[in-house]
Design brief:
By secondary structure, the chain is an all-alpha fold. The protein is built from 17 helices and no strands.
Length: 432
C-alpha cells in the first residue's frame, strides 16, 4: 500500500511539474510582452515631457492630463475586475493561506491592459505587481483545468506568481526565493520543484522578447573591508526606520482614499494621477517605475547633483504611496528599488568624509536597493538575490547582508508589519 501511495505521489509531482512548465511558457511570453511595451511607453513619456518643456504655453497641461486619464481609465478597468487593483502579491499570499480563492483567469487581461495604462502613463508603480498576479492566474487555471487537488492548485498559483516576479526583473532565482521566503515561508519539496521549473521556463521565454542581459549595467565593485561593513550596518539601521515610514505612508494613503468614499473611484484616481502628472512635467525621472533613474545612479551616481537626488527621493517617497492609493493595477517593488538607490546615494554623501569611504556612491546605491526592500517587505534574502541577479554584481553581498539584517531588525523592533501583511489584512477586511 505504501509503495502504491509513493508511486502515486511521484506521478503527481511529475504532472505538477509539467503543468508548471506549460504555465511558465505562458507567463514568460505574456510577462515579456508586458515589459517590452512598458519600456517603449517610458520612451514615449519622456519624449512627451521634452516636447511640453520646449513648446511652452499651456503644453504643461499635457503630461498632467495624460497621467490623470491613465489613472482614471485603469481604475475603471478595476471596477470590472476588482481583484486587478493594486499589487497582486497580497492576494497570492492569501490564497496560499487558504484565506481567499485562487485568481480567475479574467484577472490576466485586466492586469495586462490596466497595468500598461497606469504604469505607462507615469504612475509610480512597479511592473511586478501585474506580472505576479498574471502568473498566479495562469498557474491556478492550469491546475483547475487539469483537475489537480486544491492544495496543488495553490502550489501552482504560488509557483507561477514567483515566475511572474522572475520575468519582471529577469531574476529566476530571486523569483523562486520570493515564493519560499515571502509567499509560502516554507520550503517543501513539492513547492520548491514546481517553482524552480516555472521560473526557469518563464524567464527563458521572456528573454526571447526582452533580451538576455541584466536589468542594470554596473561596473565591477571592490569588496568592502570590516570597517565599511560596520558602516553598512549603520546604514541598514537607518534604512529600517525609513522603510517603516514608507510603509505607513502606503497604508495611510489607502486609508485616506477610503475616507473619500463619496467621490467615485475613477475620479479619485484621476485626481491622484494629476498630482503625479505634475511631477512628470517637472521631470520624467520623478515618476514611473524608476529604472532609467536607477540606471543613471548605478552608472555614476556622483554625476547626479545632490539636490536633484534629494528632490527625486522626496518626490518619489510621496508619489509612490499616492499612486498606489489610486487603486490601479501596479506593484511596489520597482519603485522601492529606485528609492533604495536614491537613499544610498544620499547616505554616501553624508558619510563621504569618513575614513575609508570611497568617492563612488554606487556600492551604497546597490546596498540601499536591497536594504530598503528588506525593510519594507521583510524578505532580506529575496532582496539580496534580486539585486545580484539584476546587476550581476556579487562583491557587495556581505555589505548587503549586514545592511539587510540591520534594516529588518530595526523595522521589526519598531513593530511595523511587513507591507504585504498589512495589505493582505486590508484586502480581507481586517482593521488593525
Amino acid at each position: 500500500m505504501a509503495r502504491v501511495i509513493a508511486e502515486s505521489d511521484r506521478s503527481g509531482l511529475v504532472r505538477l511539474s509539467a503543468l508548471a512548465a506549460i504555465a511558465g511558457v505562458a507567463i514568460g511570453f505574456v510577462g515579456g510582452a508586458f515589459r517590452w511595451v512598458l519600456e517603449r511607453a517610458e520612451r514615449v513619456r519622456i519624449g512627451v515631457v521634452d516636447w511640453a518643456n520646449a513648446a511652452g504655453g499651456p503644453s504643461w497641461l499635457v503630461p498632467i492630463l495624460i497621467v490623470a486619464a491613465g489613472a482614471g481609465i485603469a481604475r475603471a478597468l478595476v471596477t470590472l475586475v476588482p481583484l486587478a487593483g493594486g499589487s497582486g502579491i497580497q492576494h497570492v499570499e492569501a490564497v496560499w493561506r487558504k484565506e481567499a480563492d485562487p485568481p480567475p483567469l479574467r484577472v490576466l487581461p485586466a492586469r495586462f491592459f490596466g497595468g500598461l495604462i497606469a504604469i505607462g502613463s507615469g504612475l509610480v508603480l512597479g511592473r511586478e505587481g501585474p506580472t505576479v498576479h498574471m502568473g498566479a492566474a495562469l498557474g491556478a487555471a492550469a491546475g483547475v483545468r487539469a483537475r489537480v487537488p486544491d492544495d496543488d492548485v495553490r502550489v501552482l498559483q504560488a509557483a507561477l506568481a514567483g515566475a511572474g516576479l522572475a520575468v519582471a526583473f529577469n531574476a529566476p532565482v530571486g523569483g523562486a526565493l520570493f515564493v519560499l521566503e515571502e509567499v509560502a515561508r516554507t520550503a517543501r519539496l513539492r513547492l520548491v520543484l514546481t517553482t524552480a521549473i516555472a521560473c526557469a521556463v518563464a524567464v527563458s521565454c521572456s528573454r526571447l522578447l526582452v533580451g538576455d542581459h541584466p536589468d542594470f549595467l554596473v561596473a565591477p565593485q571592490e569588496p568592502a573591508g570590516l570597517p565599511m561593513i560596520v558602516l553598512f550596518a549603520v546604514f541598514g539601521l537607518l534604512t529600517g526606520a525609513v522603510g517603516v515610514v514608507y510603509n505607513k505612508l502606503v497604508t495611510g494613503a489607502l486609508a485616506a482614499a477610503d475616507r473619500l468614499h463619496r467621490v467615485p473611484p475613477t475620479a479619485r484616481a484621476a485626481v491622484l494621477g494629476a498630482l503625479v502628472g505634475l511631477a512628470l512635467y517637472v521631470s520624467p525621472f520623478a515618476v514611473g517605475g524608476g529604472d532609467v533613474l536607477t540606471q543613471q545612479l548605478l552608472t555614476d551616481g556622483s554625476v547626479v547633483l545632490l539636490p536633484a537626488v534629494l528632490g527625486y527621493f522626496l518626490v518619489r517617497f510621496v508619489t509612490g504611496p499616492l499612486s498606489y492609493a489610486a487603486g490601479t493595477p501596479g506593484g511596489l517593488f520597482a519603485p522601492l528599488l529606485a528609492l533604495g538607490a536614491l537613499w544610498g546615494v544620499l547616505f554616501h554623501a553624508g558619510a563621504a568624509l569618513l575614513p575609508g569611504v570611497g568617492p563612488s556612491p554606487i556600492p551604497f546605491a546597490l546596498v540601499g536597493m536591497a536594504a530598503f526592500f528588506a525593510a519594507t517587505v521583510r524578505a532580506p534574502f529575496t532582496g539580496i538575490v534580486l539585486i545580484v541577479e539584476m546587476t550581476t554584481i556579487a562583491t557587495v553581498t556581505v555589505p548587503m547582508l549586514a545592511a539587510c539584517f540591520a534594516a529588518t531588525l530595526t523595522a521589526t523592533l519598531l513593530r511595523n508589519p511587513p507591507v504585504y501583511d498589512s495589505l493582505r489584512r486590508r484586502m480581507l477586511g481586517h482593521r488593525d
